[in-house]
Protein: G-protein coupled receptors family 1 profile domain-containing protein
Amino acid sequence: MTVNNTEHGVVFGQVSKSIVSDLNLDTERFIMNLPGLFFILGLIGFIGNSFTYLQAAFRSNSCCIYSLCGSITDIMNLSINLFSIYLRFKYQIYIPWHISRATCKLNVFLLAFIPHLSISFLLMAIIDRFACTCKFASRILKMNELKMVP
Structure:
């Protein structure tokens, strides 16, 4: 008893091409929505950090002040750099950075400076925590005073 399957033949090249094109389309849609997701999650994290670091017990701690400034810088980075890219790719809304030479230079400056500033605040918080572990006679411990933070 033999079975003849020649009538129901499937061309595997066409099936694999349609699967690959469907996966590419799904990947493109997913990647286009990632900046919006990152912005929403970053905004939620910023609100949580703000409520935490603005409590009376934490306002007098210089490490918390550095962390709050870093969080403010992070939300500025998300809103200026990432959200404008999301609007451009998703909805074709262009923020006119390239109208004049000055705004173009400002865009490049903000693209590099804001993430660097956020990392600098994190580094200052780490140095502040290191200063807490030093001896009382050390000069680095004076950095830990609240009037030295600004």
Q: What stands out?
A: The longest helix spans residues 12-53. The helical segments are 12-53, 56-59, 62-91, 101-132.
